[in-house]
Specification:
CATH topology of one domain: Phosphorylase Kinase, domain 1
Number of helices: 14
Order of helices and strands: HHEEEHEEEHHHHHEEEEHHHHHH
C-alpha cells in the first residue's frame, strides 16, 4: 500500500493551512512570505499516507527567517474503500496528536516527567478525503531514520522500549482522570479501521499472500515442513486472528493500555551524540493507536525490526528496560506497580502469535528495496489476484538474493515460535 504523491494530493497543501501552521509554531506576528513543497521520502518509507516537507520563509520581529515542516496527506486513491480506511486512520492520528498526547503531557508535566517523545502538531484538518497534518520537522534537530535493513541494535532498542513504556503508563494516568475512565470512548477511538469490510478484504488479502509467500520460501527446507503446513492452514484465518487479537473486548487490566500500534523501524527517528551513539528517540506515525495488551507493541517491535540473535540474547533485558520505564511513570504518578517482570514475560509469550504474524507481514517490507514495493491500490478481485501474485514473486526473489537478509530473519523468528509452541 505504498503511498505516492500526485497532483491532487499536493493540492491539499494550501497557503491557508501553511499560514495556520506557521502561526501555531511561531505566533500570530509571523508573516508568511513564501513556501514550497520539497519531497524527501523514498518509495517504501510510507504506506497509508503520503509524506512530504514544506520549506517556509517568513518575517518575524523585522527579520526574514526560514523553517520547515513535515506534511502528511491523504493520497486519495482510486479505491474508495481504501480511501475510507485511510480517512479513519487520519482521524485517529489527528485526534491523538491534538487531544490525547497533549492531555498525557499535561499530566506528565505536573508529576515532573518529560513529555512523550513525538513531533509537535501545528495544523490538523480532518475533512474527509482531504486530510492534512502539518508537523514539526525533526531533521533540523538531528533526528534521522535508522537503516531499517540492518536490524535495530540493543542501544537503539533500549531507547524505544523506554519510550513505549512511558507512553503506555501515561495512557493509564490519563484514563484515571477521565470522567468515564475510558480513553477510547472519551476520544472516540473505540472503532478500529481493521473491523471494516474493506479492511478485512484488503488487508486480509495482503496478510494471506505474505503467509503463502513465506510458505513457498520454506518449501525446500526440510526442517520447516510442519511450518509450511501451519502457514497454509493459517493464511485464510490470519485476518480473523489479527482482528481478534486487536479487539479491546478481549483484554482487561493490568494488561490493558493504549498502544502505539505500529512500532517498527520506519516509525522511529533517532538523535545521536558526537560519538554517533543514540541518545534520544522520537515516535512517529500514530495512525493505529489501540487499547490492548502492552505486549502487542513489544511483540510487534521485537519481531519486525530485529535480527534474531539481538532479540534472543537481549530479550530479558529488553523486558526489564520496558518494565522499569513503565513503572517509573506509574509510581511517580502515585500508582502501584500493576505487574512484575515475570508476569510481563508470561504475557509476552502468551501473545507471541501476534509477533509471528506481524513479523511475516513486516520483515519483507523492512528488507525491501525500491523495486520490491508493490502498489496496493486494488480496485477489483482481479487486481487483488495480480497483487498477490506480484507480491509472492517479490518474496521469492528477495529470498534468493546475494545479500541473504530475508531467510535468516524469517528462520530465526520461526525457530522461536516453534520453541515456545506457537507453531506446532
Amino acid at each position: 500500500m505504498a503511498a505516492e504523491g500526485n497532483a491532487e494530493t499536493y493540492k491539499l497543501l494550501t497557503e491557508e493551512n501553511i499560514s495556520a501552521a506557521l502561526e501555531s509554531d511561531q505566533g500570530p506576528e509571523a508573516e508568511l512570505l513564501s513556501w514550497e513543497i520539497q519531497d524527501f521520502t523514498k518509495k517504501g518509507d510510507n504506506y497509508a499516507c503520503f509524506v512530504t516537507s514544506v520549506q517556509v520563509r517568513f518575517r518575524l520581529g523585522g527579520k526574514e527567517r526560514a523553517t520547515s515542516y513535515v506534511a502528511k496527506l491523504n493520497p486519495r486513491r482510486a479505491n474508495e474503500g481504501l480511501n475510507e480506511m485511510v480517512s479513519q486512520i487520519f482521524y485517529r492520528e489527528g485526534t491523538v496528536f491534538t487531544e490525547v498526547i497533549p492531555a498525557m503531557n499535561q499530566i506528565l508535566s505536573r508529576i515532573g516527567c518529560p513529555p512523550i517523545a513525538v513531533a509537535k502538531c501545528f495544523f490538523c484538518s480532518l475533512e474527509k478525503a482531504k486530510e492534512v497534518l502539518i508537523l514539526e520537522d525533526l531533521r533540523p534537530r538531528g533526528f534521522k531514520m535508522w537503516d531499517r535493513r540492518r536490524g535495530i541494535d540493543a542501544a537503539h532498542a533500549r531507547l524505544v522500549l523506554q519510550e513505549i513504556g512511558r507512553f503506555h503508563a501515561a495512557s493509564l494516568l490519563l484514563e484515571s482522570e477521565l470522567p468515564g475512565k475510558d480513553i477510547l470512548r472519551t476520544y472516540n477511538l473505540a472503532d478500529h479501521f481493521m473491523s471494516s469490510d474493506t479492511a478485512k478484504k484488503t488487508l486480509g488479502g495482503m496478510v494471506s499472500c505474505q503467509l503463502e509467500g513465506t510458505a513457498h520460501i520454506l518449501e525446500k527446507t526440510p526442517k520447516y515442513e510442519r511450518v509450511c503446513q501451519w502457514l497454509h492452514k493459517t493464511k485464510d484465518e490470519s485476518m480473523d486472528m489479527f482482528i481478534e487479537m486487536l479487539d479491546p473486548a478481549n483484554y482487561k487490566p493490568p494488561f490493558f493500555v493504549l498502544n502505539h500500534g505500529d512500532c517498527w523501524n520506519n516509525n522511529l527517528l533517532f538523535r545521536y551524540d558526537e560519538s554517533d551513539s543514540p541518545v534520544q528517540v522520537m515516535l512517529v506515525d500514530l495512525q493505529v493507536v489501540r487499547k490492548v495488551s502492552p505486549v502487542l507493541d513489544l511483540n510487534y517491535f521485537l519481531y519486525s525490526s530485529f535480527n534474531g540473535p539481538v532479540r534472543k540474547q537481549n530479550l530479558e533485558e529488553f523486558l526489564k528496560v520496558y518494565h522499569d520505564a513503565f513503572c517509573h511513570v506509574m509510581s511517580t504518578g502515585g500508582f502501584e506497580q500493576p505487574f512484575n517482570v515475570d508476569q510481563l514475560r508470561d504475557e509476552f509469550r502468551d501473545k507471541m502469535l501476534f509477533g509471528c504474524l506481524s513479523g511475516m507481514m513486516l520483515i519483507p517490507i523492512v528488507l525491501s528495496e525500491d523495486e520490491d514495493v508493490v502498489d496496493f491500490d486494488v480496485k477489483s478481485d482481479e487486481d487483488m489476484e495480480k497483487f498477490m501474485k506480484d507480491r509472492q514473486k517479490v518474496l521469492l526473489d528477495m529470498s534468493q538474493r546475494e545479500d541473504g537478509l530475508l531467510k535468516p530473519r524469517l528462520f530465526d523468528m520461526l525457530d522461536e515460535m516453534i520453541e515456545f509452541g506457537i507453531i506446532s
